[in-house]
Specification:
Blueprint: E1 2-5, H1 19-29, E2 35-38, H2 52-61, E3 68-70, E4 76-78, H3 80-89
Parallel strand pairs: 1-2
Antiparallel strand pairs: 1-3, 3-4
Length: about 100
């Protein structure tokens, strides 16, 4: 699985935390180890000002906003709350 984020997965003093970090922590708390792809830029900027990472996210989701999660089967989940809900409903299988 690949998690597309803006700048990183750091903790933020922002009320409620940063969406990209929240999505990452929800996935890791559920036992997943996503490949993290930093796409930089800003979702509200015109496509011409955002780089290839945001272009890829827009191809996957129809929007330039992150976080976005691409599962190994190709399914895409967009938004930190949606990713967190998916992670809670789909914990990673425990290692035998």
């Amino acid at each position: 699985m690949k998690l597309y984020v803006c700048w990183g997965t750091f903790h933020s003093p922002r009320p409620g935390g940063h969406p990209c970090g929240n999505a990452f922590r929800a996935l890791t708390a559920a036992g997943h180890d996503p490949e993290v792809e930093k796409v930089y830029g800003l979702g509200l900027l015109p496509d011409a000002l955002n780089g290839p990472g945001r272009k890829k996210v827009k191809e996957l989701t129809g929007k330039s906003w992150v976080p976005a999660l691409q599962l190994d089967d190709g399914e895409v989940i967009s938004g930190s709350k949606e990713i967190a809900a998916w992670a809670e409903a789909h914990p990673a299988a425990a290692a035998a």
